[in-house]
Amino acid sequence: MSNQTGRSTGLAIETAGLVKTFGENRAVDGVDLSVPAGTVYGVLGPNGAGKTTTVKVLATLLRPDGGEAHVFGHDVVREADAVRSRVSLTGQYASVDEDLTGTENLVLLGRLTGHSKRASDRRAEQLLEAFGLTEAASRQVKNYSGGMRRRIDIAASILNTPDLLFLDEPTTGLDPRSRNQVWDIVRAVVTQGTTVLLTTQYLDEADQLAARIAVIDQGKVIAEGTKGELKASVGAGAVHLRLRDAEQRPDAERLLKGALDAQVLLEADPLALTARICNGGGNGTEAAEKASRALAELARAGITVDNFSLGQPSLDEVFLALTDRPATPGGTPTDPRDDTQEEALA
Ligand SMILES: Nc1ncnc2c1ncn2[C@@H]1O[C@H](COP(=O)(O)OP(=O)(O)OP(=O)(O)O)[C@@H](O)[C@H]1O
Ligand SMILES: [Mg+2]
């Protein structure tokens, strides 16, 4: 497969000031993205952040209202055909025919994209096997479970090994086992040389899969970088404490606030507290020193700590710090079928 970028920037996607409006609503409001080829790039944001709209613009399904976007060096408006020949899209969309079986869907797609009957049969069989769908191969897709449905969607979208695959919330609503299966598939797809743009509301998903992450909120990129960079921009780490005695928690909270000069979070568990350690561009050592000083103060005050850990902040904590509100990973994603008709480019 060719992975040349067209502009030899090594970038699969490059946008500058990208805007897409729906009436008064600036769904995408000046987005700059640089997605290195050959990696998984995570776009993380809550409901309505503008993830799907961004993906649709990049996949040439929606025309941008401002700014620029290039996919492998091709302008998504002026060179939409060239873009389409290199990308594939799945996720919050129906891409397979519900009334056909798994095999029929994949074979049909193979035939539609110019493969011989024999090659299409073979590819269908291969993919169904790789995605654990062999037993369901001759069942109509409308009778698939959510996890099977997601897998057949992804299988369909990589039938022709695209250079760039858009996965729009591929695991929303799936149980943990199915999520893990989809994650394994994503990892396998990338080893074939495909770049993956993955949107998600799940912080752990971006953490698991993506090399770089853009956090978007209300149409804007509010943070971007490697996982490590994102975490470092928010704080050096988080101290998790579990006390012996719940009655001591208010004192512990006060002492920690003072010693760490940080926000202290009271967990649902009445014995537990979490504090984020701020760093003035500092490093892990500084965090560890601050944490041990704080522990010493708790000991001096007669507060018994049963359990203590110092870790990097979670992406949840990153989102909270960036937006002052939680990322609501449990929120209900909008139903993909609610989408109004697409405004396809010529
Ligand atoms: N076709 C459309 N017509 C009008 N408004 C739209 C359309 N598509 C999206 N929007 C609006 O644009 C904003 C961004 O929506 P978008 O679907 O891109 O968010 P999202 O990040 O994908 O959210 P989710 O996680 O719920 O899928 C929302 O306010 C949404 O209501
Ligand atoms: Mg969406």
From TrEMBL:
It is a peripheral membrane protein. Residues 324-346 are annotated as: Disordered. It comes from Streptomyces solicavernae. The keyword Cell membrane applies. The lineage of its organism: Bacteria, Bacillati, Actinomycetota, Actinomycetes, Kitasatosporales. This is ATP-binding cassette domain-containing protein. SMART domains: AAA (SM00382). Belongs to the ABC transporter superfamily. Drug exporter-1 (DrugE1) (TC 3.A.1.105) family. It is found in: Cell membrane. GO terms for molecular function: ATP binding. It comes from the Bacteria. Keywords: Antibiotic resistance, ATP-binding, Cell membrane, Membrane, Nucleotide-binding, Translocase, Transport.
